[in-house]
Write a structure and sequence with these properties.
Blueprint (H helix, E strand, L loop, with lengths): L7 H4 L2 H33 L2 H37 L3 H28 L1 H7 L7 H30 L3 H25 L3 H26 L14 H54 L1 H19 L3 H35 L5 H14 L6 H13 L3 H22 L1 H4 L1 H28 L9
Length: 450
């Protein structure tokens, strides 16, 4: 399956384009999430359930730093895709150069803050009781390697904007396979425990970084010049505005992680944190085809929006929602049927085996409708409509889930945590659907949507 050229984005069938973009993106996400999943299984089986609780505390911290790269990558790639659509290659180069500068400066600042305030950060993110000591062991290697992860996340989105989705997929596979192999070596063979798990993950970030850097040095269409790195206020502002959408979502997710870890510990101790640790890994893993379609959607919609092919933008939205919805329904059906078997792969702890399957089913209960939410928010980002993209992206976690987590557990205990997830999904989908429907109605008007 050959990668589409820039011109193909404006003329090939949407179904063909979405397949060429979404399948490699989905495979890349699959390997990334399998990596996280296997990491958690190894820790749970070889170290114990308290190790899963430690991972649950640490990973949101690492993801927050990596989210800088992902946010700048997605925000800048919106500019890139529209620049490709408008045949403005100078703007494409300058945009990528600014993405490199912004990712480097911001990720190093966050890593420095995490290094000098390690215990304060760990306690803030919920490392209490028996969780604190293994969390300390896991934290430092992950923290120091986080800028590499940020550059990988940023680079992968730019690679997809260049219509080289298979290369982006390969970078993710390199990191995933490397992490799994090193997990076995460091945890099982060398018996380095939780530190070995952290070191394996850090080394996998380095592998991904080397792969991505090689592509941009030798194979990319973006041949940068020193003048491209000269700061341009307008370009920085546009990338920042569009990046803020993604970073805000991940920032809110980190805030949610803090709230969840503290709430779960209050109502159920380390055991409840472990239960959510398994569920959170499944949230990353199970929805990989839906997220892959959402990622594949972005360059197609962005290019055609930049080229003012609004009919193709509308078609892209409809087809993406249709296929993402079909996959989401299939995924939830499998979770309903096989929840016990899924949880059994992670741990032999009888308390965790007893409580997690029911919680897993509740957390995923509204997954059949999330396609509208993901594609709708993605459209506004691809079109460069930063404020609406930000509001819709934050709607689930920020406007609905966090308030529900603050309220419902006070009345329903741990069950209040699990049921908050489907309620938030449904509310966010209704809001996103309303704005997306109004936007799509404008496509048929004589003056378009501008």
């Amino acid at each position: 399956m050959s990668a589409p050229t820039e011109e193909d984005l404006g003329r090939q069938s949407i179904t063909t384009l979405l397949r060429k973009q979404a399948i490699p993106a989905s495979i890349g996400i699959l390997f990334m999430t399998v990596n996280i999943l296997v990491d958690t299984i190894f820790v749970g089986r070889w170290i114990g359930s308290i190790g899963i609780a430690a991972l649950t505390v640490i990973m949101p911290i690492a993801f927050l730093i990596a989210a800088i790269g992902l946010a700048i990558g997605i925000g800048g790639s919106s500019v890139l895709s529209r620049a490709y659509g408008a045949s403005d290659l100078d703007l494409s180069r300058r945009t990528f150069a600014h993405q490199i500068l912004m990712t480097g400066v911001l990720s190093i600042l966050l890593v420095s803050a995490g290094y000098f305030f390690q215990d304060e950060v760990l306690i803030l993110f919920g490392a209490k009781g028996e969780i604190l000591e293994p969390a300390r062991e896991f934290f430092l290697p992950i923290l120091l390697a986080a800028p590499l992860q940020a550059f990988c996340a940023m680079g992968n989105t730019v690679i997809r904007a260049e219509d080289r989705a298979k290369v982006a997929m390969s970078a993710t596979i390199v990191a995933a396979v490397g992490n799994i192999v090193l997990d076995i070596l460091f945890i099982k063979v060398f018996e380095w425990g939780i530190f070995g798990a952290a070191l394996a993950t850090a080394c996998s970030f380095l592998m991904c970084f080397v792969f991505v850097a090689y592509f941009f040095i030798f194979n990319s269409k973006l041949r940068l010049q020193w003048s491209d790195f000269s700061p341009r206020t307008a370009l920085i502002s546009e990338i920042t505005a569009l990046s803020f959408t993604t970073f805000s979502r991940h920032g809110v997710i980190s805030i949610l992680a803090v709230l969840l870890n503290h709430t779960l510990f209050t109502h159920g101790g380390e055991h409840a944190v472990t239960v959510y640790g398994i569920i959170s890994r499944m949230l990353m893993f199970a929805l990989f085809p839906v997220i892959g379609i959402a990622q594949g959607f972005l360059p197609i919609a962005g290019y055609n929006y930049g080229a003012e092919n609004f009919g193709r933008v509308k078609e892209t939205i409809k087809i993406s929602i249709k296929w993402a919805g079909i996959f989401a329904i299939g995924i939830y059906t499998l979770i309903l049927i096989f929840a016990e078997q899924i949880v059994g792969a992670f741990t032999t702890d009888p308390d965790v085996l007893r409580d997690t399957p029911t919680a897993l089913r509740w957390v995923f209960a509204a997954s059949p409708v999330i396609a509208i939410q993901l594609i709708g928010a993605g459209y506004f980002q691809a079109a460069g409509k930063a404020l609406k993209a930000l509001m819709l992206t934050l709607s689930k976690q920020g406007f609905f889930l966090i308030p529900l987590i603050l309220i419902l557990p006070n009345y329903f205990g741990i069950f209040g945590v699990w049921v908050s997830f489907p309620i938030a999904d449904i509310l966010a989908t209704v809001v996103t659907g309303f704005f997306l429907k109004n936007e799509m109605n404008k496509f048929s008007k004589p003056d378009g949507i501008l």
